[in-house]
Amino acid sequence: MENLRAVIYLSIFLSVMTYVCQGERSTENQLPSAPDEPTFGLELAEALQGLLDEADSRVGLSVEKKASVIPRCDVGERCAMKHGPRIGRLCDCLRGTACNTFFLRCY
C-alpha cells in the first residue's frame, strides 16, 4: 500500500514539474535551424559526379557479354555438380555421350 502511494505521489510531482518547466526552455540547448539551401550536399554531389565521370573516361566501361566456353570432358569424367535441387554443368560431354544427371558423369 505504501509503494502504491509513493508511486502516485511521484507521478503527480513529475507531472506538475513538467507542466511548470515547460515554458522555461532555454534557447541555448536547442539545435540551430537548418539553412534554407543545402549547399554542402549539393557540393558533395557535384564532386562525386565529377569523380565518376573521370573514372568512366579513364577505365572505359564495357557492357559487352562475353561468350562462355565450356570445356570438353571424356567418358567417365565428372560433368556436373549438384547443389541442392540445382545441377551445374562443369564441362560438356564428347559427341555421342551425355551427362547422366544421377551419377553426374559422362556416359
Automatic annotation (TrEMBL):
Keyword Secreted: yes
Matching CDD domains: CART_CTD-like
Location in or out of the cell: Secreted
Signal peptide: 1-23
Main location: secreted
Keywords noted in UniProt: Disulfide bond, Secreted, Signal
InterPro entries: CART, CART_C_sf
Family: Belongs to the CART family.
Protein name: Cocaine- and amphetamine-regulated transcript protein
Organism the protein comes from: Ameca splendens
